[in-house]
Amino acid sequence: MRYWLIKSEPDVFSFDDLLAAPKQTTCWDSVRNSSARNFLRDGMKKGDLAFYYHSNAEPSAIVGICEVVREGYPDHTALDPSHDYYDADSNAATPTWFMVDVKAVKKLANPVGLPEIKNSAALSEMALVKVGRLSVVPVRPNEWETVIAMSEGRS
Question: φ and ψ at 48, to 5 degrees?
Fold first, then answer.
């Protein structure tokens, strides 16, 4: 099993929205960065866990945990001309963009904010800090455990 971090602006799709979704599951679509796409297409596997991160929030924070329940498949929003993330260069035969399905596991009792993450020596190499703009990034097992401990008040 691998660990990930996925980002969403809470006013676009919050962790509470995921909790309220049918079966607490949604497709993670509309990612338009090739590095993040590669993680969705090639890296994320069924059963992997991901931190759910609210970006563009005060403060930005890890607020929940979700599980990958469907591995990468073509992102339908890229093929829909009426969608904001339509990509005229993408097509069904050779799709450019991919998505996964995620299911809520739990909301963190204590969100872990970006300032706390940046102040933690154990998280100084975390992709969230090093490669801040990507909407999907891997998380190392020791980073996962550190964030969990922080959310539980153990560090």
Answer: -65, 150
